[in-house]
Amino acid sequence: MRSSLSRTAIFFEAAVVVLSSESEEEEVMSLPERIKKRVAVGSEHCSPRGGDAAGGEVVREAQVLPGEVCGRGGGAERLAVCSLPGSDKPNSPLVSRVSPDASPLLPKKKKYSQKEREAMCQNAWQRRKEREAKKRQQEEEKERRKALAKMLKAQRPGECQKYITVVLDPVLLQVEGGGQILSALQAANYSCVVEDQAVPCSITWRRKTVSPQMGGGDEWTEEPNVLVLLGLEEFLSMAHSYKQEAAGCAEGQKETLQSYVAHVMEKMPGKILALAVVGVENYFRALGAQSKHRQRQAAASGSQGKQSKQRRKEAKDSGLELTKRDMEEALVDLQLCTQVQVSFFESCEELGEFATMFAKAVAEAPFKREREKTGFSFYLEKGWCGGVKVDQSGKGLLKVWKRQIQQFNRVSPEMAEAIVSAYPSPQLLVQAYGRCSSEQEQENMLANISVCRGEGVTATSRRIGPELSRRIYLQMTSHNPDLYLDSTG
């Protein structure tokens, strides 16, 4: 039997014996005979006298010591345990280490120089620094997006009221209508504080600004709007002073509405002022009823002329000669000169509702300003803002095409309808332009389209005309985005 092993460890009855074979070819024999032969060969290698029988037993069955390795696979060392003949202890084992030459050795670990190790450490540190910087940048971007989303949410209707604080002047709560204003604002869940203002009976607003920057703290900013409550007598006196000033008979330079607004703007520069007055309509209604009552009394007594003179004298003394028309003239002058409007209310409850709506408008102002930034340099009417709904089947595209034609100046819906009826899509119109033989023919291609207006006996008919035909041609074929189409303005 052939054996490719140079040495073989055999475990037999708990004994470890190293058998060696010097011959590559062996006769076929039974297992007991092979074992006996191998044991005999092993005794010759272990005996110092070449296997003398007088030397005693050389190869002994050695017990496996605790911790000893009897054999390793894969090219590892093998241990041979033998007994020394001259040892004091008859069973003292001799362990010899044998390294197989045919087994491949493990690759040795490469040694690096000091500079190479420093370069490797530097590269590893740089990669770690880059990973940390990238992770930090991702976290900052995540926080920035979160802060931006929070800022946009704070501007939405329904959420913006939570970031608004209404500041009321203490004098406002002491006059008629001030208590209703505070109650209405609190009922609408607005945060209200009472602080001294530069102008008595005024209301201002503060907004809690959410910063879109990461780590930016919330700040409070003053809103530009201010609402001032004027007393009825104070307002009538200012309107009467304007009447006297307009008539050229002003006495003592009394304060008018315009001078009052100028005084307020000096104390609160940069503010958008609004005035509110309660009871003006009731005053003029009572004044008219009183005047009619006096006229009836004068007619009944027969002394109408004398009573009329007496009534005018009493009115002049009491300042009641101000009419509703005089008041409206004072308001028109105020609006033209200062752009300030005055709102009138019949009751304090209406004033409280107005203050609530005013606060809501102030809170939603940033959101509406952002929504109006459409990028168009022209004004879109309400009917155009809604747009045209187009479904997946294409229904609604004809209306879109009609709307595009109506964007031209001086184009009525009837004219757009006539063009769309002749050419139901922009592609069909461009194809029709391509079939024309000259540019002049292209410009006048739509000029003779008939436009019908009205129905029945009142129906009229006209043509599109060469001017609109030329403008539509230039719009559909020109490559100049800044081309001015309307030569007539």
What does this structure look like?
This protein is 45% helix and 15% strand. It is of the alpha/beta class. The protein folds into three domains: 7-98, no CATH class; 160-371, Rossmann fold (3-Layer(aba) Sandwich); 382-477, DNA polymerase, domain 1. A six-stranded mixed β-sheet has the order 6-5-7-8-9-10, sandwiched between helices. Strands 1-2 form a two-stranded antiparallel sheet. Strands 3-4 form a two-stranded antiparallel ribbon. α3 packs across α9, α4 crosses α8 (324-338) and α11 packs across α12 (413-422). Mean pLDDT is 76; it is low at 1-26, 48-100 and 315-319.
Structure in a nutshell:
The chain is built from 15 helices and 12 strands. The chain is of the alpha/beta class.
Could you name the key traits of this structure?
489 residues; alpha/beta; Rossmann fold; DNA polymerase, domain 1; 3 domains; six-stranded mixed beta sheet; two-stranded antiparallel ribbon; 15 helices; 12 strands; 45% helix; 15% strand; flat; disordered N terminus
